[in-house]
Write a structure and sequence with these properties.
The complex is a heterodimer. Chain A is built from 15 helices and three strands. By secondary structure, chain A is mainly alpha-helical. The two termini of chain A are about 20 Å apart. In chain B, about 35% of the residues lie in helices and about 25% in strands. In chain B, strand 10 and strand 11 form a beta hairpin. By secondary structure, chain B is of the alpha+beta class. Classes of the chains: A mainly alpha, B alpha+beta. At the A-B interface, helix 3, helix 8, helix 11, helix 12 and helix 13 of A face helix 1, helix 2 and strand 6 of B.
Chain lengths: ~375, ~700
């Protein structure tokens, strides 16, 4: 048994994918932060390289740390985190610092570090759903004893995220529904839940449109969706620039660091990073990156199938699906298949909190996967 | 457990297939963007991100023949402000706006700080992103402005924008201002700037530029560049010293006589090179300005100065001799219905033709010419044409007046034309054309084209020399020339220009006092007639070196004779030029030289300048060098010359130089210069001989 296997336990493919995504992240972020660097540090891109790299390294350390934890502990932890995240979400909504008019961020007092509370809540909710759904498996089709306890936290968390960050709330809501579907919750209830979700959203949008300015974000959503629907080129600057990036990239790309569209795309290091990937590495690069995510989800399903407990199954699937689904949404925005949502590309985009939680989630997946390796089973048995 | 699991697993595969389809849709869309919309998108991208920017070539300088800078391009800056730049917060703005405005007001002294503040505050409220603060500020002012509050934050945080332009400056303005001229695109350009524009302007470069972060344009690659080529330098024939003397003398005399306008031109006899050319016109507040090139452009009836041409034709044809006796009657004579008068009432009695020329008798000259040519006036006019008097000189300046010399075929030719023409009426010539004619006489009959440019240089290397051109190798026989030269000397010795006598060299010349119809000067002058007083001649009479013409128009103080109004200017110019021009003096003998020999101390500097001085003072120099700049060391009997390396890409040694020379040398090499103190440079921060890094700053310390 070599050293690598000794320290990096769990599914090796997942490890490789994580590493490859991290490398992609460094390459593309370093190339695309020029504008940001120009604005804030007089063109010092090195500052951002260091900052981003340290986040990735901390993330990998967190993955490593998490994957050594026995995954059954997460069941209890999920309850704690969920109860913690709900008041935090409330707090953020009331007094969060405003970036792009969206109160998504909370400043941790002493560290003076802003983090997005929805990332924590998302993480906690997926874990909690895995726990509660697996617990209720015996009478899962029941309404009162199963559906209600499952759906309540979903509605509370998504409802609290919704005003500040529609796309994250929607994404989390869809992820929850998929998780419920996987977890054998009664289809009838799921369908009616979708109905309620759509209705709730409509109400919020209507309020926003009736009283413009009361919920600033609603104005933004409405504009974005209208822009997309009308396909008006001049009004849809972001997607236009993104498409130019993809078109000029060609099959083989312009080469690392050669992007020109990074200067025109807003948030090229985050929302539109996939466009930069295609511009610099071509369609080939874009396909490979997309396949990395598909591989990740496939491995997630394989791992979940080997788990002996439904909790493990749902936990791995929940995290891998949530991550890959978000990746797909981000890519769909970049290629102009979806309206602009502001979702980062998990593990590739720059952005502190989301990176950290994503890496922890990867650690959780790896933790589940390692339970079934024979040598580890032995070690576990010994422990 | 296991049945749940089966149930769960098929559901995961369903979801997985869904995600794969989603991924497929993404890839399909990416393909579509590339292959279907691709070409149109690429085109649009290039339009908005890449463009060819032109790089302005540096316009060449115009120098005097002595190397003084007559016209040069200096960078000036427009400063603007982006009042809506994101990073300029209300806090920063309101906290610093007063300090900024006080600084601006103090620096430019044009508005109070309150005015500045109001202006900027309003512009900010309007959200102006390109608000003009001040145009055409100097480089030093710019450096200062850059340190002001808010502006020191730069363009992105402080909204400070500056743009460089090149502005033409004439350091010796108004010396020869009109002749040096100016160049404006798509507009009326004048002078040497206009004539030699092709040489001066250089070739603009171009560069493919790409838009990058923050709206900044960046060169795309080295290959796509077309370097701009700096324009050539034009060395004019104008001698800054002679020009200075001429312009000053003209100015003083115009003031004294309150004349409307006047002009002076000095020409080198042998070559036709114009050493001074000045045109002054009374403008606002009775001050005088260079506003029109009268020397070149103003055609008028020359009056008595033309008598020289008449006399020459008659002498050349052999119809008259200088000793012919002519009766001036009572100072007037009738040709048909018109009476011609002499300026001296009562006439000169019976005089010789020579005397008639001396005293400028209209009656005598016209009678002599009519007598000789009345049967065949065409012979007279043809002879004038042969002396190129009906042709433009072709001087290198736009707008030369066309000469007008009638001939009997003209509709306006009448019985009185010949006599009046003989004394300079019913014809039109510009001052320069008359000067060219007199210069030909001084030059033994060889007529030279007036020349304004000496040579064209490119970065110190000769591109082409402007060779003197001969317009007419011989306008008259040697004998005739010798005769009229005598007459011209007599004019000064015994005749109308006696007031120019009595210098230690002789002047030859002719006065002219012409009556000009006043209509062209408008209501300003009450009398119908005004006068044009002129004097044209050359000096020293025996060995002519310079010819010169002075024309004063509309002197208004009741003094209008050529000798009194124009003569003094000629005298002053001749006097100063004679004193300054060393070639006009006999060389000292060796013994005289040794008696006064002490070798002086000399600074380092430009080789040509130093050698001119050494040669002039007969100081022996030792050492040959081809470099432009030299250092010197004084020895017992000579000055030793060492070449000073002034390689284009090396930092030059500027210690012991004056600041102007140093700035010229250093900034030419792309260094920016900062200095402190006064006097001579004592230290330089970048060591001499180091390779120049363009854009770096060199600090100089001066002390006297």
């Amino acid at each position: 048994m070599n050293v690598l296997e000794k320290y990096f336990r769990g599914d090796k493919v997942v490890w490789v994918v994580v590493m490859l995504l991290s490398i992609t992240s460094i390459l593309t972020v370093y190339s695309s932060i020029v504008t940001l660097a120009y604005k804030h540090t007089d063109g010092n891109t090195f500052y951002y390289l260091i900052k981003h790299s340290s986040f990735l390294i901390i993330g990998l350390l967190l993955t490593y740390f998490t994957h050594n934890i026995k995954y059954t502990y997460f069941s209890k932890l999920s309850q704690l985190l969920l109860y913690l995240s709900i008041p935090l979400l409330l707090l953020t909504l009331v007094m969060g610092s405003t970036i792009n008019d969206a109160s998504r961020w909370l400043t941790i007092p002493i560290l003076n570090y802003t983090f997005q509370t929805s990332d924590l809540a998302k993480f906690a909710l997926i874990m909690y759903l895995a726990r509660i759904i697996s617990k209720k498996q015996d009478n899962i089709k029941d309404f009162k004893s199963a559906f209600i306890p499952i759906i309540l936290p979903v509605l509370v968390v998504c409802g609290l995220i919704l005003p500040a960050n529609l796309s994250t709330a929607a994404l989390l809501f869809i992820t929850s529904i998929i998780l419920m579907f996987i977890g054998r919750v009664n289809i009838k209830y799921i369908l009616s839940l979708i109905g309620i979700g759509v209705a709730g959203l409509t109400v919020v949008i209507l309020i926003g449109m009736a009283f413009p300015g009361t919920i600033k974000r609603v104005d933004t959503w409405v504009n974005r969706i209208e822009d997309f629907r009308e396909g008006n080129v001049t009004e849809n600057y972001q997607s236009e620039q993104s498409k130019i990036a993809i078109a000029t990239g060609g099959v083989f790309g312009k080469g690392p660091g050669k992007s020109t569209q990074r200067n025109f795309l807003p948030h090229p290091y985050s929302d539109f990073i996939y466009a930069i990937v295609i511009e610099e590495y071509g369609l080939i690069g874009g396909i490979l990156l997309l396949f990395l995510y598909l591989i990740l989800l496939f491995r997630g399903i394989r791992i979940s199938s080997t788990s002996d407990k439904p909790f493990g199954t749902l936990l791995v699937f929940g995290f891998s699906f949530s991550l890959v689904f978000q990746a797909m949404i981000n890519m769909a925005v970049a290629v102009n298949l979806f309206p602009v949502t502001g979702q980062p590309l998990p593990m590739v985009s720059m952005g502190g909190t989301s990176i950290l939680f994503t890496f922890i989630a990867m650690g959780v997946i790896l933790s589940v996967s390692k339970q079934h390796e024979p040598q580890n089973s032995l070690a576990d048995a010994a422990a | 457990m296991t049945e749940y699991k089966k149930d769960i697993m098929w559901r995961t595969y369903v979801v997985y297939i869904g995600i794969c389809l989603f991924g497929g849709a993404i890839l399909f869309q990416a393909f579509r963007v590339q292959f279907v919309e691709g070409s149109e998108l690429k085109e649009r991208a290039e339009k908005s991100t890449i463009s060819v920017k032109s790089i302005e070539a540096v316009r060449g300088n115009i120098y005097s023949r002595n190397g003084s800078l007559f016209a040069t391009s200096v960078p000036v800056y427009d400063i603007r402000m982006d009042l809506k730049t994101e990073a300029l917060t209300d806090e920063v703005f309101s906290e610093n706006i007063k300090a900024l405005c006080v600084n601006l007001s103090e620096t430019f002294q044009d508005k109070s700080w309150q005015q500045y503040k109001e202006e900027l505050t309003k512009a900010r409220a309007r959200g102006e992103r390109y608000h003009l603060i001040k145009r055409n500020i100097s480089y030093t002012q710019l450096q200062k402005v850059k340190t002001f509050p808010i502006f020191k934050l730069g363009q992105y945080k402080g909204g400070f924008i500056y743009e460089q332009k090149n502005k033409r400056k004439q350091p010796f303005w108004p010396l020869a201002a009109r002749t040096i001229g100016n160049y404006r695109e798509n507009s009326s350009s004048v002078g040497l700037e206009d004539f030699y524009n092709k040489e001066l302007q250089g070739v603009n470069g171009s560069r493919l530029m790409q838009k990058i972060a923050g709206g900044v344009w960046m060169p795309l690659s080295d290959e796509n560049e077309q370097e701009p080529q700096s324009g050539y330098d034009v060395y004019s024939t104008i001698d800054v010293n002679i020009q200075d003397v001429a312009q000053n003398a003209l100015y003083n005399q115009l003031k004294l006589h309150n004349a409307d306008h006047g002009c002076v031109a000095v020409m080198e006899v042998e070559t036709g090179k114009i050493r001074a050319i000045s045109n002054l016109k009374k403008g606002r507040n009775d001050e005088y300005y260079e506003s029109y090139n009268y020397v070149v452009g103003e055609s008028t009836e020359p009056g008595s100065t033309f008598k020289l041409a008449s006399l020459m034709v008659a002498l050349e044809k052999g119809y008259v001799s200088l000793d012919d006796k002519i009766n001036t009657e009572d100072g007037s004579t009738k040709f048909y219905d018109r009476t011609m008068y002499d300026s001296k009432r009562g006439g000169h009695g019976i005089i010789t033709l020579r005397e008639a020329f001396e005293v400028s008798s209209n009656v005598a000259i016209s009678k002599a010419i009519v007598n000789a040519f009345k049967k065949n006036p065409t012979e007279f006019t043809d002879a004038l044409y042969k002396m190129n008097l009906n042709e433009k000189t072709g001087v290198a300046i736009k707008g030369e007046g066309k000469p007008y010399i009638k001939n009997p075929e003209d509709n306006t030719w009448s019985g009185v034309t010949l006599p009046w023409m003989s004394i300079g009426y019913e014809i039109q010539l510009t001052p320069l054309q008359i000067l060219t004619f007199y210069n030909a006489v001084a030059n033994g009959g060889k007529m030279m084209k007036p020349q304004l440019a000496e040579k064209i240089m490119n970065k110190g290397k000769l591109v082409r020399e402007v060779k003197p051109e001969i317009l007419n190798p011989s306008i008259a026989s040697k004998e005739t020339i010798e005769l009229v030269k005598e007459c011209l000397v007599d004019v000064v010795e015994n005749g109308t220009a006696k007031n120019l006598k009595g210098m230690n060299f002789k002047i030859a010349g002719k006065t002219g006092t012409a009556q000009i119809a006043n209509s062209k000067y408008g209501y300003k002058y009450e009398s119908k007639i005004s006068y044009q007083a002129s004097f044209v001649g050359y000096f020293p009479a025996e060995k002519p070196k310079y010819s010169c013409i002075v024309v004063i128009n509309a002197p208004s103080n009741n003094v209008y004779y050529g000798n009194q109004v124009a003569g003094p200017i000629f005298k002053e110019v001749a006097n100063k030029v004679f004193a300054v021009d060393l070639k006009l003096h006999d060389v000292l003998t060796t013994q005289e030289h040794q008696a006064m020999s002490t070798i002086p101390y000399s600074k380092s500097g430009n080789k040509d300048d130093l050698l001119t001085v050494f040669n002039a003072f007969k100081i022996k120099t030792d050492g040959e060098t081809s470099s432009e700049w030299i250092s010197t060391s004084t020895e017992e009997e000579k000055v030793k010359i060492n070449s000073q390396s002034m390689e284009k890409n090396l930092v030059p040694n500027v210690v012991e130089m004056g600041i102007m020379d140093a700035i010229y040398l250093l900034e030419n090499r792309g260094l920016s210069v900062k200095f402190s103190g006064k006097g001579v440079i004592k230290t330089q921060s970048l060591p001499a001989g180091e390779i120049v890094k363009k854009g770096s700053t060199i600090y100089l310390e001066l002390s006297s």
